[in-house]
């Protein structure tokens, strides 16, 4: 058993300069886990509640002093000097203290900062690397495939394409260093192309360049061109992924899609047919949030139409919730679950969602948030839970590259770990 001997939390800044919570949990006076929680911009309405002070004079209402007060006044008195030997046991106390379905009393960001920190401290206390603390039954581990966002649109970049992310997926490689080399070369090639054509090389929240098009198909053509110019084969070595974030595009019962400077309202059927067209013409292997988070019927239609060829990824639809995943399975609406710990609030709940998805033959992608930090925890989570993919943004900005670099560290210390490559997508 490990005794909680100290807890401390402070306000720090995330990658957007927004306040977030960094917590320190100490076990037995010598093992301290330190974690910093991220924050999303394009958030599903069913996510656990992130607590903010709403005091306009403090970071325009974004400060998190109330989270720190909750830790000092409510949580600490109930866990200091208590003994825990599992993540689940620790989290159960946090969940009991919050006593709400959506973490609205203490805040999902409050709970996650402590849950992550305890997980790290427990790994230290057991002399384990973090990725080995999640399930000791695994005899071997594999390296997930990175999903790299290289062009931004939607809520992550103004005056650009509607679709939020255009990603490259290096499936056709035998090892992780070659996959990273490929992604960086394509990213640099894209930057050179934009510069040579007089386009901005400003980046969005996740490090991807801002799409120069107010059109949603042209970015795919541009990325194909850059893949080839970088010396790689589209559809053989490198594939494409989309995060549409369609819940941000819904307007009544139609989707507001800008094409060539004109507002164009697509019905769900028209948008579905557009996706089918894109998959037929481009090497797309993953489409995230293709419809609104409540548009279950059309998720099912799309999954039945192309789910045997393409990952249909639920983010806003599923929000790392077992209940939502159960509904999706019943409706056959997706084949892949995006996992974001701060959508649900604790590591044990995150692990439960991952395990449930895997038991039902669904892929899992461990994901960052647009407002992220230099904390590399999700890289360990991806490897330790046998997720097939890691989504951490562009190969730029330290809050993104810290995750990719952590995987390189793990490989250097565990040379027998293989890169999943084409095996990452069981579709």
Structure commentary:
By secondary structure, this protein is an alpha/beta fold. It folds into two domains: 2-127, Enolase-like, N-terminal domain (Enolase-like, domain 1, 2-Layer Sandwich), CATH 3.30.390.10; 142-424, Alpha-Beta Barrel (TIM Barrel), CATH 3.20.20. The chain is built from twelve helices and 18 strands. It has helices at residues 65-79, 87-98, 108-125, 176-196, 218-229, 268-281, 296-306, 322-331, 341-344, 347-359, 377-384, 398-413, and strands spanning 2-13, 19-27, 31-36, 83-84, 142-143, 145-152, 165-169, 209-210, 239-243, 250-251, 254-259, 262-266, 284-288, 311-314, 336-339, 363-367, 389-391, 418-419. A hairpin with a 2-residue loop joins strand 10 and strand 11. The chain starts with a strand and ends in an 8-residue tail after the last strand.
Descriptive key words:
single chain; 427 residues; alpha/beta; Enolase-like, domain 1; TIM Barrel; 2 domains; 8-stranded mixed barrel; 4-stranded antiparallel sheet; 12 helices; 18 strands; 20% strand
SSE topology sketch:
Elements: E1 2-13, E2 19-27, E3 31-36, H1 65-79, E4 83-84, H2 87-98, H3 108-125, E5 142-143, E6 145-152, E7 165-169, H4 176-196, E8 209-210, H5 218-229, E9 239-243, E10 250-251, E11 254-259, E12 262-266, H6 268-281, E13 284-288, H7 296-306, E14 311-314, H8 322-331, E15 336-339, H9 341-344, H10 347-359, E16 363-367, H11 377-384, E17 389-391, H12 398-413, E18 418-419
Parallel strand pairs: 5-18, 6-8, 6-17, 9-13, 13-14, 14-15, 15-16, 16-17
Antiparallel strand pairs: 1-2, 1-4, 2-3, 6-7, 7-9, 10-11, 11-12
Helix pairs in contact: 1-2, 2-3, 4-5, 6-7, 11-12
